[in-house]
Amino acid sequence: MTAYKDLMAFQRETEALSGVAGMLGWDQETMMPDGAADQRAEEHGAMANMLHARRIDPRIGDWLATADAPDDVAAANLRQIKRSYERTMKVPATLATELAKTTSLAHRTWAKSRAEEDVASFLPILQKVVDLRREEAAAVAGDTDPYDALLDDYEPGATGAELGAMFDALRPRLVSLRAAILDQPAPVVLTGTFDEAGQLALSEKLAAAFGYDLTHGRIDKALHPFSSGSGLDVRITTRTEERDPFNCFYSTIHEVGHACYEQGIDRKHLLTPLGAGVSMGVHESQSRIYENQLGRSEAFTSWLYGQMRDVFSDFGVADERAFYGCVNHVSDGFIRTEADEVQYNLHVLLRFDLERALIAGDLAVGDLEAAWNDRFLADFGYAVDKPSNGVLQDVHWSEGLFGYFPTYTLGNVYAGCLNAAMRKAVPTVDADLAQGDTSAATAWLRENVQQFGGLYQPTDLITRATGAAPTEAPLLDYLEEKFRGIYNL
Amino acid sequence: MTAYKDLMAFQRETEALSGVAGMLGWDQETMMPDGAADQRAEEHGAMANMLHARRIDPRIGDWLATADAPDDVAAANLRQIKRSYERTMKVPATLATELAKTTSLAHRTWAKSRAEEDVASFLPILQKVVDLRREEAAAVAGDTDPYDALLDDYEPGATGAELGAMFDALRPRLVSLRAAILDQPAPVVLTGTFDEAGQLALSEKLAAAFGYDLTHGRIDKALHPFSSGSGLDVRITTRTEERDPFNCFYSTIHEVGHACYEQGIDRKHLLTPLGAGVSMGVHESQSRIYENQLGRSEAFTSWLYGQMRDVFSDFGVADERAFYGCVNHVSDGFIRTEADEVQYNLHVLLRFDLERALIAGDLAVGDLEAAWNDRFLADFGYAVDKPSNGVLQDVHWSEGLFGYFPTYTLGNVYAGCLNAAMRKAVPTVDADLAQGDTSAATAWLRENVQQFGGLYQPTDLITRATGAAPTEAPLLDYLEEKFRGIYNL
Fold it and tell me: Residue A199: helix, strand or coil by DSSP?
């Protein structure tokens, strides 16, 4: 038992230090004075170097070689540590340094290229990022599919082939649902302005309604909403737009979903490798089910309508039914992060297919923009007008995040599965939501998903929670039923 | 040059990591949700362990052995690193761990004993803290005065004997000035209430008036005002009391003094051992000269009077002269942190003499309360009524901070020297202050003190700035002249 105890004591300090690095990131986006950026960059770099040195500490290998797992929690801890250690050890230090340097430069280049609508100026550094990530994938995974090696970092156990099959099944029904919706008359849209204080007050009420625990968290404003931290300190941010309070409200609910996952993990996993969400996909399943299947449901929006009238008086939407359509309004647009439930996954699928081809070497970086624009036209029916609305819109590739995009849609797929199972188990959900009460729904999610942290691998976790292996069918059924209802299809 | 470069690169990362640990402390006092305390304690512990491991890294010794100093900046960097390394290496790891554990327990015990007015329950753990600090002093300094070894950690180069002589010269004149003042009729005191928003708005205006740079800092509320950080990110906190806006204003100006010292250091010292204030005493000299010699001057308070009337309308003080008396009101009180300029140092001198005797072994821990009460009665003329107003009022000893108290009065002594020199060099100071303009005074301080960071040792720094070795005389002259004027003595 000594090896296991020593390893876990070392790991516990690493988890704590890693939490500190996360806090530093939170501070940067919320509190840090502008003039501190250069110093903060050095602080981040020093923390990253220190954490990397801990992650390749040879004692980890020694401990792993002799550690026994007396129970399933210990076994899962060892599995997580081993997985991370072996992956880290396989990447040569020079490559890790080169990747850090290159992505830092690529990120700055991307921001400039996007501002100048100049794809060509971004391609050379993107090529280098792709090459380095392929090199990393080869170091990690040897001869297996390099894309899978990258994907595995965000979604343990997932493969490009399986996700590809699932996504290929999603795409035609989403394209056709989208086309049918956009043939119909548009529902009312929100007009007028909504003061910031009112948005923030209602946003905080929504966070509380979804069970976010402010004694272990806080809400601040930031340019981009995010959730950060785990265990006893899980913070979220939100933002306001005068003409679009839904941006604030649904960003908040989305981040509350992420935060409640972290807050809902069994305390016995605190500061262990199991003490955080198990994968990006499962994380996104929680944020999306809170935001969409619960937060954008007809039942919950009927309650929200009353709340908004209390705060903003009559804001020009006649009744709950019209408000439901308004919240779930589907319209043309180029930008993934602004997309509705129906179109969002089409944006992701486009990126998944392109990045998989890039990493496989089947698509040249020089052909990326054309491939993007062709695919966009095919799925959405109109042409990309400028790079910032197309291939340069997302930050991810500049940061080397290949294999990350599909976890967004996988999260929606998981949310579809969980929603179906939860509604079977908790038949009162809609009646509760109409009162602004999410407690039964979120308790089911905590009980069946959140509490386990990293104990079970993603597909095992969803299978245990729903009684069946995850498929895209529940998500598609849910979307088709919901939007046929709203648009009278 | 390789050894020096390698050492400085290593040190730079240590400075950055140390800054992160400081940020964590700032967050804890300002932003952290209450429920995160246990997790934060582990994060602090992990950062402290990691920083300690860096500070005893044997490579530092190797680098120091061969590093050359091509200029005075490099020489000063090496001196600071050597000093810190040698001191850290002399303290056995077991003793360091025992000290950390014991002071943590002593701090909790002190809080409970103070709340229960029960000195006896605090004495056993205080005895252990004293013993461990004596053991540390012996490890660090061998046969020299153990108090000097502790003092040197806060005020490099200072000795108990020298400070004792200086403080013995201060005491009788302060006791007699205090007695003379309290024989006179009291000036008007502030009555009524002052809303928090108004206090915070004026507090921010005061911070700006004293040159605090908000692009490299921020102001938040906290239970106790403090300043933290250095270089490009120096933050302060303040607090408000409805009936006492001076608490907010002068806390802010005090912390701005600390913060401007850090902000004023030459950028070339950023993230080096010279990139922070050189000692506690010099730090306190800046906070006190901002707060008192500038902020509580007749000229500045005449401007502040107008500002307060703008914000709070007529608040019951008839004119600038009455307001000046009101700001500088001297009255009886037991608590050091609430004391005015005249009495503050008497509180410090009491602690200095007692802690020096404790560490020398001339005073038993069991006799501490009686010694405190006797001395208080002698200097202040009335008896301590309960331990929380006496020996249990300060947190310092529970945390093992022996040698820290005298730096408060040393800071006032330095402030007295600097004030006299600055007023000679900048004859327009009072005319400027009467307009709320501190720029000439603070520019002189930046030029002559702040910019150098850790480049010169404390007494050298003050001597260079003022043209003479520091003595208590200018402080005494200043206090006697000022308060004779206010109280018509």
Answer: helix
Q: B224: annotated binding-site residue?
A: no
Annotated binding site of A: 254, 258, 284
φ, ψ of residue A228 in degrees (nearest 5):
-150, 155
Annotated binding residue at B204? no
Per-residue pLDDT of B397-413, as tens digits, reads 999 999 999 999 999 99
DSSP-assigned beta bridge partners for residue B107: none
ipTM: 0.94
For CA atoms A353, A355, A358, A359, the dihedral sign is negative
Write out pLDDT tens, residues A278-293: 999 999 999 999 999 9
Closest by CA to B126, choosing from B352, B393, B357, B358, is B358
Measured between CB atoms, does A19 come within 8 Å of chain B?
A: yes
Please give, rounded to a whole number of angstroms, the shortest distance from the CA of B433 to a CA of chain A.
28
Cα B321-B322-B324 angle, rounded to 5 deg: 65
- Is A43 part of the contact surface with chain B (CB cutoff 8 Å)? yes
CB B180 within 8 A of CB B486: no
Q: Which of A83, A26, A74, A84 is nearest to A54 (CA)?
A: A84
Backbone angle region of A190, left / alpha / beta, with phi > 0 → left and psi within -120 to 50 → alpha:
beta
Rounded to the nearest 5°, which phi and psi values hold at B52?
-60, -45
Contact B39 A233 (CB under 8 A): yes
**Cβ–Cβ gap A36/B213 under 8 Å:** no
8 A C-beta contact, residue A6 and residue A40? no
Any CB–CB contact under 8 A between B16 and chain A? yes
| Angle made by CA atoms A331, A334, A336, in degrees to the nearest 5 | 90
- Whether B242 is a known active-site residue: answer no
Pick from A465, A420, A464: which is nearest to A445 by CA?
A: A465
Helices (H), B313-438: 320-327, 341-360, 368-380, 405-425, 429-433
How many Å lie between the alpha carbon of B108 and the closest alpha carbon of chain A? 22
Structure tokens at B311: 């914000």
Cα A311 from Cα B273, distance rounded (Å) = 54
| Secondary structure element (H or E) that encloses residue B223, with its range | none
Indicate the burial class of B418 (C-beta count within 10 angstroms; 0-12, 13-18, 19 or more). buried
Contact B17 A214 (CB under 8 A): no
Instruction: List, in order of start, the domains of chain B with CATH numbers.
Output: 2-145 (no CATH), 146-489 (1.10.1370.30)
pLDDT tens-digit readout, A423-463: 999 999 999 999 999 999 999 999 999 999 999 999 999 99
Our CA-based measurement puts residue A41 at a distance from the nearest CA of chain B, in whole angstroms, of 10
Q: Can you tell me the distance from the alpha carbon of A349 to that of A344, in angstroms, rounded to the nearest whole number?
A: 9
Extended beta strands in B110-198, E state? none
- In this prediction, residue A1 carries a pLDDT of 67
Token pair, residue B100, equals 């950390």
Average pLDDT over residues A137-163: 94
Residue A143: its pLDDT value, please?
80
Smallest Cβ–Cβ distance between A17 and the set B47, B232, B270 belongs to B47
Nearest residue to A452 (alpha-carbon basis) of A293, A304, A283: A283
pLDDT at B1 over 80: no
Partners of A221 in beta bridges: A238
A354: nearest Cα among A374, A335, A334, A333: A374
How deeply is B243 buried, as exposed, middle or buried, from its count of CB atoms within 10 A (0-12, 13-18, 19+)? exposed
- Type and span of the H or E element at B263: helix B245-264
Confirm or reject contact between B32 and chain A (CB < 8 A): yes
Task: Enumerate the residues of chain B whose CB falls inside 8 A of the CB of residue A214.
Answer: 33
Structure tokens that stand for B212 in this block: 């605090």
Chain B residues touching A23 at Cβ < 8 A: 23-24, 27, 43
